[in-house]
Amino acid sequence: MDDQNKNLILATVLSFLVILIWFVLFPPEETPVDPNAPAVTATEDGTDTALPDTASAPPSVTADGTQAPAAAEAPAEDAPRIDIDTPALSGSISLQGGRIDALAMKRYRETIDPDAPIVELLSPVGGPDAYYALFGWAPGAALDYDDVPGANTEWQVTSEAERLTPETPLTLEWESPAGLVFEREITIDDDYMFTIRQRVTNNGDTAQRLAPYGTVARHGEPQDLSNFFILHEGVVRMSDGELQELDYDDLPDLDLVEREAARADVIDVAQDGWIGFTDKYWMTTLIPTPGTPFTSVAKYVDNADIYQTEVRLPTVEIAAGDSVEISMQMFAGAKEWETIREYEADGIDGFIDSIDWGWFFFLTKPIFAVLHWLNLMIGNMGWAIIALTLLIKAILLPLAYKSYVSMAKMKELQPEMEKLKERAGDDRQKLQQGMMELYKKEKVNPASGCLPILLQIPIFFSLYKVIFVTLELRHAPWVGWIRDLSAPDPSSILNLFGLLPWGTPEAGSIFFIFSLGILPILLGISMWMQQKLNPAPTDPTQAMIFAWMPWVFMFMLGSFASGLVLYWIANNTITFMQQYAIMRSQGYKPDVFGNIRSSFARNKKDD
């Protein structure tokens, strides 16, 4: 039994040390890049169709070798705009380039303060953290960039709508010197999905070739980048059922692709896919029509510190007097589980995987689905976490029962174990053989007590992942002072939980680790009470480890999300009740208060 206690303690402590390592920040490395150059993609017939660098302007050289226009500047401050107004979004579209470059989410604020500003997602070129979407057509060899709309093209509004809403689509038009008429219709639903339909009519005398594309560009890394190893932020894409994630610091390390004039990762998608940028809670993603082949590009524009994701659709040929229309969608908004799941049900393959479920996705997905359902039933995420804990403990009850029964039998064998130790003396091999024979005779499995603890490790980690990455936990209140279950307990013992007239230490302060809230303290107490179901080990070393473990874990988990600490308190409390009931059913009456008095007496004696 002594050896098993040591193993259990070691396994538990090591498990939490592993978890802590995962929370170490990994600052991105700055990588020097080569000078800028044109971006070119091959068409189906082997000819080249140049693609513009949306960071600034068309490339320096077109596909047929002629000189392209000079670099474009940021959109003029007085460029006309069309407002976007939906139940979920507000913002505007710049008619210079037709960029979707100003977008904010009405349902979400920066902090829990009801007067805090709403979260901004997209922002125009020229300001901090420029982040926008641009759509267009790359010209074939017979055309140059004056003949296609570019980043500086002044579009004209031809629809009657004065703003883009779910009821009023926006239609833009521009006519090129080559006789090509470009139309762009933009629609939006009540949530976060844009649909961009691009139509080209060839009023010239000869056939023309064009390649439609969509680009999401981001100037520099986001200022609020988390840099947590447990969380992916950067490029996320699905390519024919295969999910790929690229961090921002991965892109400058990609191979320099001469035809792209950038460091790029290019994938030809045969049927279904999407690509874009994901943040912790928000995402901007380009989605071609399901069943459409396309080229998926993730790249870092050299010498400009610009990250881009692109969707390039197959080149089309437009006969004189004919027209062609293509369609593409763009998701720009919050990663709400229900909303994304509905879009996936409508045909977007694997879209639910845009949420970062992690390595234990086979646990995190069902855990969140059940947690979400419980929240809908109860109406409070904190109580839903407690209900989820009850459900998990109920599922694991058969294993827990066997474990506790085995532990009770092991206690009964303690006198026999002590006799074996006396007979074996320093002969470890003889002792081990005697123990195995005793276990076999009494039909006791000493390892059965480890299984519930080992199962708790992936469950604990998966629940942490769910609480950390899912939007539904963000700013979710529980009771009283717990107004955000995704954040640490804001109360502090250093100001007597708000009774003294000073604030709590800021994160990073040397005193922050001692700024324990009410929940972490309750966690330590619940672990300590659980220990008192059994007498302290007779071995002084084990007794010391057991005595310190609740308080070490209290400090370790003190800065974790309140929702996770709440789960652990509920888990300890339910475990205490389960173990107490099972031990009573086996004829053993735990003397909790007696064990507490004994521990205090032992500590006093040691002093």
Automatic annotation (TrEMBL):
Keywords: Cell membrane, Chaperone, Membrane, Protein transport, Transmembrane, Transmembrane helix, Transport. One of its GO terms (cellular component) is plasma membrane. Residues 381-584 form the Membrane insertase YidC/Oxa/ALB C-terminal domain. It is found in: Cell inner membrane; Cell membrane. It holds the Pfam family 60KD_IMP. One of its GO terms (molecular function) is membrane insertase activity. Its main location: membrane. It is a multi-pass membrane protein. One of its GO terms (biological process) is protein transport. The chain crosses the membrane at residues 7-26, 381-401, 510-528, 548-570. Residues 81-369 form the Membrane insertase YidC N-terminal domain. Residues 33-87 are annotated as: Disordered. InterPro entries: Membr_insert_YidC, Membr_insert_YidC_N, YidC/ALB3/OXA1/COX18, YidC/Oxa/ALB_C, YidC_ALB_C, YidC_periplasmic_sf. Belongs to the OXA1/ALB3/YidC family. Type 1 subfamily. Interacts with the Sec translocase complex via SecD. Specifically interacts with transmembrane segments of nascent integral membrane proteins during membrane integration. NCBIfam families: PRK01318.1-4 (NF002353), yidC_nterm (TIGR03593), yidC_oxa1_cterm (TIGR03592). HAMAP family: YidC_type1. Required for the insertion and/or proper folding and/or complex formation of integral membrane proteins into the membrane. Involved in integration of membrane proteins that insert both dependently and independently of the Sec translocase complex, as well as at least some lipoproteins. Aids folding of multispanning membrane proteins. This is Membrane protein insertase YidC.
